[in-house]
Amino acid sequence: MKELKDAGKKIKMPEDMKERIKNNCFSAESSDAVKKEPHRLDGRVIAALAACLILIFVVGLKSSGRHDKKIPVAKTTVSLKEDTTATPPETSEKITEKLTEILTTVLTTVAKSETTARVVTTTESEKTTTERNTETTRIINNEITDPIEGEEGVPPSIIEITIDKLKKLKHAAETMTEEEYSEYLFENNKEFFDVDYARIIGRKGFLEFYAKIENLYIPVFNEDEVEYSGLNCYTETEVIDYMVRLKNTQRYRFDIHFSGKLRFKYNGNEEFEFIKKIETSKATAYVYRDLVEDRWAWKGFAVELFVDGQEMDFWVGEKQTIEEFEEAFKKIDFRKIGDLVNEK
Amino acid sequence: MPEIKSKSTSSIENVVDIYGDTLYRISLVILKNESDAEDAVQETFLKYLQKNPEFENAEHEKAWLTKVAVNKCRDMLRMRKRNAELKTEAEDNRNYTEISPIIEAMMSLPEKYRVVLQLHYIEDMKIDRIAKIINRTPSAVKMRLQKGRKLLKEKYGEEFC
């Protein structure tokens, strides 16, 4: 990426533009057009306090029941088969064992490594419901794979909804007229960042949408999983279906920490061998268990390698079987590590 | 008599000199228009004057300014979407002085990829810092970098990473 960096650094703000900006800043300051704000509490302190308040609020709601005003909108009844039991230990151990085997076998085969794997596993199911609900959820609406003419470069419409944002929007939709609601969204566009869906479907539409999802468990998932899940939602129905499907899914994340030495021998047009120290690195596997169909799916497998202080990461996207993961992992180009090396 | 500048005036002049190029590059990459980029940078520095923030170090200051600039640019992009006339005008005026083919290729990528490529490879920002700036998780940033590199490679058509 040196070429990109060098080319990028050549782009500089024109001098006349710089002078204009400086002059405008001087003018603004001297005319009191810019009023300085007093220093406030450290943002991190505020964020921590807010997080505590939200947690208390959510826990309080869960224990006291909902007191929301009833809205006369149609409700969708969703039948769910929910399995709240934890994963049997044997399955968890088998998965851990298999992942460890993959790492050591593949790394040994591909890189002739002498690694030792210290296995530490954590699972998403160990998190409490409260912790899940305070995390950000994300629904993808209209994931645009091919840019629509005139919108190239504009990101797809993504709803980022946290529990508190949902409730705020709901309160606004309940107490405002259609026009006031639209204005409210526009004026608070920073807070409801990218909540285009709420804007598009309007006040009444949002209330109907909220009524459908309020009884659903809003699962925790991050952008990585949604991007690579291949689940593109184009309509409101698909959004609901996606959330229902996620509710029927138990998510697990396995982290395997490992460190040691890697001896690389790459046979291609050139052959070289070197030994590199792998600092504490991590392999993470995301596994989904579909409760309805009672099957397991490997969602993603990421490896973070720290070699001589340099971070290199690899991601193998969604695969259906462990064998497919092994194959994909073997295809990772470890020559990238070789680029860091001056030894031959 | 030498011109005596007030402390704050010297500061803003200094800040523009130090960070102007970086903020301009970032704004240009997002907005793809020199005039709009100038507006975004202008607004960023005005916010700097208004908020009068305190920083732990230069890196913190750079990250703060970058975040404001990125948010401003995204506001402007959303405004373009809302106002079809503005969008058309901006697209007609989509211009930047001569840039290299690899930058041209990067500019053709979707915004979410070119922003992280810009911040990481050109502005030398660490992943954790970028994550805070664009309000995503570090692993999401890594994902975008990986996909961005892949797309850039396809567009530019050469081995470069």
Describe this structure in words.
The complex is a heterodimer of chains A (344) and B (161). Chain A is an alpha+beta fold and 344 residues long. Chain A is built from 12 helices and 7 strands. Chain A has a 5-stranded antiparallel β-sheet. A two-stranded antiparallel ribbon of chain A has the order 2-3. The longest helix of chain A is centred in the N-terminal third of the chain and has 23 residues, at 89-111. Chain A is flat and about 65 Å long. The model of chain A is unreliable at 37-43, 47-90, 108-163, 217-235, 265-271 and 337-344 (pLDDT under 50). Chain B has 161 residues and is mostly helical. Chain B has helices at 7-31, 34-51, 58-82, 84-92, 101-107, 111-122, 127-134, 138-156. Mean pLDDT of chain B is 78; it is low at 1-8 and 85-93. Classes of the chains: A alpha+beta (344), B mainly alpha (161). At the A-B interface, helix 1, helix 2, helix 9 and strand 7 of A face helix 1, helix 2, helix 3, helix 4 and helix 5 of B.
Shape of chain A: flat
Question: Gyration radius of chain B, to the nearest Å?
Answer: 17 Å
End-to-end separation of chain B in angstroms reads 55 Å
- Strand-residue proportion of chain B: under 5%
Discrete helix count of chain A: 12
The major beta sheet of chain A can be summarized as: 5 strands, antiparallel
User: How does the overall form of chain B come out from the CA principal axes?
Assistant: globular
Helicity of chain B, as a percent range: over 70%
